[in-house]
UniProtKB/TrEMBL annotation:
Keywords, comma-separated and alphabetical: ATP-binding, DNA-binding, Nucleotide-binding, Phosphoprotein, Transcription, Transcription regulation, Two-component regulatory system
Ribonucleoprotein listed as a keyword: no
GO molecular function terms attached to this record: ATP binding; sequence-specific DNA binding
BP GO terms, sorted: phosphorelay signal transduction system; regulation of DNA-templated transcription
Domain Sigma-54 factor interaction stretches: 143-372
UniProt key word Nuclease: no
Entry-linked InterPro entries: AAA+_ATPase, AAA_lid_NorR, CheY-like_superfamily, Homeodomain-like_sf, HTH_Fis, P-loop_NTPase, Sig_transdc_resp-reg_receiver, Sigma_54_int
PROSITE patterns registered for this protein in UniProt: RESPONSE_REGULATORY, SIGMA54_INTERACT_2, SIGMA54_INTERACT_3, SIGMA54_INTERACT_4
Modification sites for 4-aspartylphosphate: D56
Response regulatory domain sequence ranges: 7-121
Name of the protein this chain belongs to: DNA-binding transcriptional response regulator, NtrC family, contains REC, AAA-type ATPase, and a Fis-type DNA-binding domains
Highest taxon above the source species: Bacteria
Amino acid sequence: MSKNQYSLLIVDDDINILEVLDARLTAAGYTTYKAADGMTALTILGTKNIDLVVSDVKMPNISGLQLFHEIESVRPGLPVIFLTAYGSIPEAVSAVQAGAIDYLTKPFDGKTLVGKIRHCLANLPTKSEVESPLADTNHGGFIWGRSPRMAELRNMVMRVAASKVNTLILGESGVGKECIARAIHRHSERSNGPFVVIDCGSTPAGILESELFGHTRGAFTSAVSDKKGLIEAAHGGTLFLDEIGNISPEMQHRLLRFLEEKIIRKVGSVEEQHIECRVLAATNANIVEDVELGKFRQDLYYRLRVVTLNIPPLRERQEDIETLVRFFVESHYTVHNLPPVTIPDETMRWIRQYSWPGNVRQLRNALEAGVVLCADNILRVTDLQLETDPSLQKHSGSEVIATEPFSLETSEKEAIIRALKATNGVQIKAAALLNISRRSMHDKIKKYEIIPSDYK
């Protein structure tokens, strides 16, 4: 995108500075909109497609920091650069810690400001990138698709990537939360740094502390040598905390302290280390409910979710399914050195009608099985090895046929019961149907006081 296609909003209560900014940025080739106060700025944001905001910190009525928080609520991830006098530097620093791009002190250098703007806008997606259904296919086979919801998500991801803000990624199992986290890292200024993943859901509580913070030799019985923690390993890059909702209260406290102070101390050590990394977190749990029930710290929740990204389940973006199917089928027969595979219309219709409770991951795995097993290089429904019919999820006995898809989002307890009925009470099969772990299935059955034997 050329410069004059980018629109900048400049906000300053000093009319002279506002005119200087307007002249400088217009000369640099950008389209500018001017606001002398926060309320005017918010009005412009509601009517114009703004790509970046340059704002003063000290302003009457609505300060720059207050304006930033308002922007985060209406346009999450929109890049903001602050201009500040010497006395208001602490406020600008607070804004940067909350997710603003950067700040410059007055009097500012015009070339430096333009340079920062250019760097920031370079990370935003171009129109062709947003419209490309196969963007990022070189990174784990992730496809954005053409649906409006995924186009909106991609735009959000690119804006978030251009900032330093902590981000919470929400979505059902299999929607691609780690792929989104990698996309944020890949398009950020930290892209040359490490991307470190820790699965909080599968790591036992007693081990998670050592995994995250590291330990010194002799810190506990099996600590035979010093170990670098994953937070330290992520220095200069991005730390991705998957299934963050599963960590213990003690670990929540330690993680909160790190997020607030950027300081860690290894298990068994008295020395503190300053770590600079971006934190992305993800969960498929209802974390808001956990906060309300006191299971998850509210202060940690707000630290993690400066911006929230919601990834839609596959059943809510059916217009992307055919694109995904054709891409995965081609990828699988290429990887396995097989001849091209044909997808009959009836197979494609069946796939489009299926509810896909395991989302894109389930679709990808089913198609791999189908490509490997299909006869005559023709993909048939039976090749996909899916146990249930897409539109007729049968209950046991004489109960009526259920037409709703399995969904943990709409009614978790009902979905578990329906999955148990469909699998005659076999927990491991019901867990596979819902695409959750056996441990999660066991915990949810205990939580809802469900007796699996009732559905045999």
